[in-house]
Amino acid sequence: xxxxxxxxxxxxxxxxxxxxxxxxxxxxxxxxxxxxxxxxxxxxxxxxxxxxxxxxxxxxxxxxxxxxxxxxxxxxxxxxxxxxxxxxxxxxxxxxxxxxxxxxxxxxxxxxxxxxxxxxxxxxxxx
Length: 127
Hints:
The structure is a single chain. This protein is mainly α. It is built from two helices and two strands, in the order ββαα. It has helices at residues 26-62, 67-87; strands at residues 2-7, 13-18.
């Protein structure tokens, strides 16, 4: 492991620990292991496109978000990021074939009462 330091914006120093060398076989194996993931990702992309269109129409008609369709779109995004991260070497862990539609971690964030409400009168635009 080597550590490189580069000055970041504002005078802060960014320290990045990274491996000095990547094994010569690693990029080739990553691309070969990516092939089945790419086939599944292509099919999921087509399904997500259709679901997104239906989701958009349902949102316009009902005014509500359907949690099942949202979960499917979120699952596609999570899976896509895991596969892409493995392909480009951001992680050494092979992306699992995990298609759970659940929402993952859900947190409720309390509203901050000290914030100033948004002004909707558009005074800067003269409206």
